[in-house]
Structure formats: C-alpha cells, structure tokens
Amino acid sequence: MAQLRRDFAKFESEKTVILVVGPENAKAFAKYWKENDLPFIGLPDPKHSVLKLFGQEIKLFKLGRMPAQVIVDKAGGVRYAHYGHSMSDIPANKALLGIFAEINGE
Fold first, then answer.
1. Full-prediction pTM beyond 0.70?
2. 70 Cβ partners below 8 Å, 6+ apart?
3. Which one of 49, 59, 81, 106 is at 20 to 30 Å from 21 when CA atoms are compared?
4. How far is it, in rounded angstroms, from Cα 87 to Cα 49?
5. Fold for domain 2-99?
C-alpha cells in the first residue's frame, strides 16, 4: 500500500479510485487505516466475498491472500487483472498508470 500512497496524486490525475480490499474485520481494518493515514478507500473482507468474485487466491503456506490488482472501468468491466505469486509480486505503479491512461484515452 505504500507504493499506492507514494503515487496517489498521479492515480487521481488519471481519474481513478483506489479501493483496497483486505482480509481483516472492520474494526482491525479501520484501526490500520487510521494508524497509517491512508488516502484511499479500504474495504474489509473477512469472509473473502470480494476475493471470490475476482478469483484471488489464498495460499496458506505463504500466509494468506496473495496480492491482486484489478482495474475495473466505469462500466464495471474488468480491464486488467494481476494475481501475485508472492507478497512482493506487485506491478509497478508506472505500469498501472499506463493502463489507466490507455483506458482514459479510449
């Protein structure tokens, strides 16, 4: 999430909304959001409802959910999805911003 925070203004300039979905319950999630002063939207998903909708994997041997980045356009269509194989398998912001620029240019 630090990566997203670092370029938050760039994401906003591409008319994007960042929604981070996490496995914690609402109380723990709210506490984390407040302690880290995160500028984007956070959604607790302790029952993995959103996770299941987007096909995100849980790998018990790797301590839970693997990272996933899904870009959904204004019409609700999935335009990009990346499912990480480790906690560090996250696309660079530059790549994500390029996808947003392409979508916005259509």
1. yes
2. 54, 78, 80, 81, 82
3. 106
4. 20
5. Glutaredoxin (3.40.30)
Q: How distant is the alpha carbon of residue 98 from its chain centre?
A: 16
Do residues 7 and 96 lie in contact, with contact meaning Cβ atoms separated by under 8 Å?
no
Task: Show the 3-state SS of 40-99.
Answer: CEEEECCCCHHHHHHCCCEEHHHCEECCEEEEECCCCCEEEEEECCCCCCCCCHHHHHHH
Greatest CA separation for the chain: 41
**Can you tell me whether residue 22 is helix, strand or coil?**
strand
59 pLDDT tier (thresholds 50, 70, 90)? low
Tokens standing for residue 41: 């939207």
What 38-46 contacts at long range (C-beta under 8 Å, 24+ apart), as own/partner pairs, is: 38/1, 38/5, 39/5, 39/8, 40/4, 40/5, 40/8, 41/17, 43/19, 45/21
